Amino acid sequence: MFRKLLLIDLWVLRIAGTAALILGLVIWAGYAQNLLHTHIVLGGLVVLALWGVCLAALIRKASAPLAIVGIIWGVLVLWLGMKQMTLMPGSMHWLIRVVHLLLGLGAMGLGEALVGKIKRAASSLG
Q1: Angle CA(77)–CA(80)–CA(84) in degrees, nearest 5?
Q2: How many angstroms separate the CA atoms of 84 and 104, rounded?
Q3: Distance (Å, rounded) from C-alpha 39 to C-alpha 27?
Q4: Cα gap 14→1, rounded to integer Å
Q5: pLDDT at res. 89
Q6: Sequence-separated (6 or more) residues with CB below 8 Å from residue 68
Q7: Residue 91 carries which DSSP code?
């Protein structure tokens, strides 16, 4: 059961993350502004999936420090995603968008890394 839930978390992270990335870039380019709420929901799914993987890593004692970083990272992704429109308005706002993009990509990478650590920890136990 644990492995199935971890696999579901991983695929939610991958699919929602990829969709949020593509949709975010399309919105950034000035198209599909009406899909902003969809992008927000996808980003929320990414963070929830990341937190699920972090919880699994903590339960399996795979990598507590990285799991804690992942939890904090998820909070940062959510915070910046919700606040980004009010941060640095004007010609330098693109910096906030780049940071949000990098945080989102980092969330996906952290989730992948944690799943790898969980799998290695499980295989070393026999």
Answers
A1: 145
A2: 13
A3: 9
A4: 20
A5: 85
A6: 54
A7: T
**Domain assignments of the chain as residue spans, ordered by start:** 2-124
Summarize pLDDT for 111-125 with one digit per residue, the tens: 999 999 999 888 876
Instruction: Give 88-105 pLDDT, tens digit per residue.
Output: 888 888 999 999 999 999
What is the three-class DSSP state of 48?
helix
Tokens 């999936």 identify what position? 49
Is there a contact between 10 and 57 (Cβ–Cβ < 8 Å)? no
3-state secondary structure of 32: coil
Closest CA to 20 of 108, 112, 96: 108
Instruction: Quickly count helices (H) and strands (E) in the chain.
Output: 4, 0
Q: CA-based diameter of the chain, in Å?
A: 56
Each residue's pLDDT tens digit, 3-49: 888 899 999 999 999 999 999 999 999 998 899 999 999 999 999 99
Two tokens at 51? 């937190």
Instruction: Determine the Cα–Cα distance for residues 19 and 46; give it in Å rounded to an integer.
Output: 10
Q: What percent of the chain has pLDDT over 90?
A: 75
